[in-house]
Amino acid sequence: MSTARIAILGTVGVPAAYGGFETLAENLVRHRETLKTPPDLTVYCAASAFASRPARYRGARLCYLPLRANGAQSMLYDAVSLVDAVLCGHDRLLLLGVSGALALPLVRCFGRARIVTNIDGIEWQRAKWGRLARAVLRASEWAAVRFSDEVIADNAAIARHVSTRYGRACHTIPYGGDHARATAPDPAGAEGLPQSYALALCRIEPENNVALVLEAWSRLSAPLVFVGNWDASAYGRALKARYGTHPSIRICDPVYDPARLRAIRDRATLYVHGHSAGGTNPALVEMMQFGVPVLAHGCIFNRETTENAALYFDTPDDLIRAVNTLARRPDAARQTGARMREIAERRYRWAEIGAAYFALLDPAGAREQDVPAPDQPGNRAA
């Protein structure tokens, strides 16, 4: 049996230092090392994101492109990656996100590679996009579902969307979170912070309800540490200026180093998750590993991720009530935290997730390796 040649596309690249897809790619590279017969694996990377550009990382070949993986160039970056991967002889393609999916019909014309696409969230529904961008992303989603051999959703609600809108079966494979506790903490990460606090951590965008969380906390006395890229937009800078001097709120710049981030998470006694779009959010499943109560926006994606066992809010008043409830009922807070950790350890483990991805990418190889099937009962959309 010939060795499968797999390409991972659609991310900034590895080593991971940016977001959820990068962490996924990193853990797939690591999982490859555990297989009896590791496939030939290539990860496409944005050259500008890496000061050092080694040819390989943990046995995977790295291919650098002179394009940005995010922003206006993301569609071209993904499309060029797809075409190059086929021309270079890869017979398995894992496309993360739909930005480059409009190139899939072209890839189908001159290549016979097996294409597996993780469509991410329902990207065209995000409030930050204008009318034209939404139309393009909608078309890209359609192309991803239509021209991929297998489609992956990271959340059961996304899988239902694919089933309802396109009549297509969709595998549900979430993100892992156990890596968040695997790194020893660097005490410098929490230097200058209180000994305990509520923690919020996200990109500073309206759909993550940053303003809602800050408004609620400005009426509370408990400390909040809020980590994010505040200076990346006018929205973030305005909120930083408004709330940055509030005595209960500590505004912190983004932290990407795993050891420093671990130290920050270790001190958290509560996690506030304002995301209202997308699917299974990596920051949420990572924080669930720490066994603290979760207060999450009440959207269907967060409810699916936490099995309706967290506390939920839709308004500042909801959030204030939830915080006060947990303060009055420490036993309930401990039980909620324990439930979050139980769910995380059962559902969001990279060993099982990596096995599921490789089973879809290389079914014959997966059978040879005796890898479990990618879907749990009930997780495949009808």
TrEMBL record:
Tagged with keyword Transferase: yes
DUF1972 domain mapped to chain residues: 6-177
Tagged with keyword Transferase: yes
InterPro entries from the UniProt entry: DUF1972
Keywords: Transferase
SUPFAM superfamilies for this protein: UDP-Glycosyltransferase/glycogen phosphorylase
PANTHER family cross-referenced by the UniProt entry: GLYCOSYLTRANSFERASE WBBK-RELATED
Protein name: DUF1972 domain-containing protein
Organism, scientific name: Rhodovulum sulfidophilum (Rhodobacter sulfidophilus)
Lineage start: Bacteria, Pseudomonadati, Pseudomonadota, Alphaproteobacteria, Rhodobacterales
